[in-house]
């Protein structure tokens, strides 16, 4: 894997950081904070993490920095800023590593967010005890909740977005504008 970052990569990272922030802010204003910072985080912007399978490390950096900015708006504080961003970094890195199996990458990428955010600390702030009538320890309940909601966004919306962006016509257009893409034989 190529870890060399040039100015185009830096600019693309900035675009993804900005997109991540704007999508979350729009969701906060239109739907409300609980969908961004609550025990069921259906962050639509997390669909961008799936694009790390196509565009690589600039997306990893962008969704990580974007998460830092978004979590600074939350009420949880430094723990969410640090560990939420680490979760996005791990998730996007996992997507890059598993990119040859893009659906698996999108599914697997949801688990670090669920484990780190839901199981690591969010349950301290939002102690859930049952999911669909099943009584669980708050840590497990929040971990399941965050994992499932992230799966919906990443393996649902993100995977579809990745498939659309990976179409030959769109891919060639991206390349003709100077964007580097990760190439591989199989994007299942």
Please tell me about this protein's structure:
This protein has a single domain (8-176), classed as Arp2/3 complex 21 kDa subunit ARPC3. The protein is 69% helix and 2% strand. The model is unreliable at 184-188 (pLDDT under 50). Strand 1 and strand 2 form a beta hairpin. A two-stranded antiparallel ribbon has the order 1-2. The chain starts with 6 loop residues before the first helix and ends in a 12-residue tail after the last helix. With 188 residues, it is mainly α.
Percentage of helical residues?
A: 55-70%
Task: Quickly give the CATH architecture.
Answer: Orthogonal Bundle
Specify the number of helices: 8
Return the string of H and E elements: HHHHHHEEHH
What radius of gyration results from the CA coordinates? 16 Å
Terminal CA distance reads 20 Å
- CATH C-level category: Mainly Alpha
Q: How many discrete structural domains?
A: 1
> Shape, please?
globular
């Amino acid at each position: 894997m190529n870890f060399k970052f040039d100015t185009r990569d830096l600019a693309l990272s900035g675009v993804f950081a900005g997109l991540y922030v704007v999508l979350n802010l729009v969701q906060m204003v239109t739907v409300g904070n609980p969908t961004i910072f609550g025990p069921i985080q259906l962050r639509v912007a997390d669909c961008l993490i799936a694009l790390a399978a196509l565009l690589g490390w600039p997306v990893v950096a962008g969704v990580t920095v974007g998460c830092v900015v978004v979590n600074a708006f939350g009420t949880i504080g430094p723990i969410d800023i640090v560990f939420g961003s680490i979760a996005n970094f791990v998730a996007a890195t996992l997507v890059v590593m598993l990119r040859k199996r893009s659906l698996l990458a999108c599914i697997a990428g949801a688990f670090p967010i669920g484990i780190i955010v839901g199981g690591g600390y969010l349950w301290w702030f939002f102690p859930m005890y049952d999911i669909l009538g099943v009584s669980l320890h708050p840590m497990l309940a929040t971990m399941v909740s965050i994992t499932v909601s992230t799966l919906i966004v990443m393996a649902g919306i993100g995977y579809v977005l990745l498939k659309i962006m990976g179409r030959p016509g769109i891919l060639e257009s991206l390349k003709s504008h100077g964007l580097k893409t990760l190439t591989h034989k199989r994007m299942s």
